[in-house]
Amino acid sequence: MTGERDGSDSPDAPDPRDPPADVTVELATPADRLDVLRILDAAMLETDADVVDDRIDAGDVLVARSTRTGGVVGALVAVRPDPARLHVDAVAVRRARRGRGIGSALVAAAVDRGASDPAVDAVTAAFDAELTAFYEALGLSVAVDDEGSGRRVGRRSV
């Protein structure tokens, strides 16, 4: 995963940006479309199915997949508001799997995806204030949204 450890963890401790041992993070395929839409819908995130289709085709949708069942347990949809920016539009994890590092692994994989694309110079996200620590732990600089919404915006140069 992208990023440096802060030195406070023991060298043998797992990187919190890595998925749990029973989960892999990979690019979504068209066969994952319905699972992605269901996970986002269950998290009450508004997502346009046509946007999801477009982003899957572009390689900008990631899924967290159970190694035991093969089922999708988390999803991240990124958009490109301009060619130099990969923006995390939606990220969600099935309720029963939350709190295990799957969301962190998805965002970290999106950062890696941005870093591997020479056209991208930053990965961004917009989110509610209570998620500030989550995004800061993944190396995003966080500021208050200047549109007065009270939301936060995160940015990480890649």
Automatic annotation (TrEMBL):
Pfam families xrefs: Acetyltransf_1
InterPro entries: Acyl_CoA_acyltransferase, GNAT_dom
Domain spans labelled N-acetyltransferase: 23-158
Keywords recorded for this protein, A-Z: Transferase
Keyword Nucleotidyltransferase: no
GO terms, molecular function: acyltransferase activity, transferring groups other than amino-acyl groups
Region (Disordered): 1-27
Biased composition (Basic and acidic residues): 1-20
UniProt entry tagged with the keyword Repressor: no
Superkingdom in the source lineage: Archaea
Record-given protein name: GCN5-related N-acetyltransferase
Organism whose genome encodes this protein: Halorubrum coriense DSM 10284
